[in-house]
Amino acid sequence: MTDVLIALGGNLGDRRRTLAAAIDRLRPAVAVTARSRVYETPPMYVADQPAFLNMAVRGVTTLTPFELLDRLKAIETELGRAPSVPNGPRAIDLDILYYADRVLESDRLTVPHPRLAERAFVLVPLAEIAAEFVDPRTGRTIAALHAEVPGRETVRPAEPPQL
What we know:
Blueprint: E1 2-10, H1 15-26, E2 30-35, E3 39-41, E4 52-61, H2 65-78, E5 93-99, E6 104-105, E7 110-111, H3 120-130, H4 142-148, E8 156-157
Antiparallel strand pairs: 1-4, 1-5, 2-4, 3-4, 3-8, 6-7
Helix pairs in contact: 3-4
């Protein structure tokens, strides 16, 4: 079994229901061992769109990184994600943040996630469930990355904060 950290987010439709459905659909491919609270966050990169709900989950899987990626993409499709502009509105987005301490770069998948360190909407929920996790590229903990990311104050617990 391999430890994985996954980010979830979306800003279209019933955001809370979609996050819950995504977690349900991870099983049995991923046994979720921890999940963060749900956070409401302003959009990043493309500002003219609704606010997002974001969270992170930790789990274990027997899937390879590419099998896990394929499963996450299938879940996105099942839950109504349609092609759109990069960083634009979406019903659901599922990203592999870490696949244990593995570093992987390919045309289809880069792990650790390449823009993780600049994203408060990822690091705030991730620090809640994996503060001690060490990023294999930088050798720094999630807590240390979280402490330095700009925009932490814009990531606020959604009401209610739990799914």
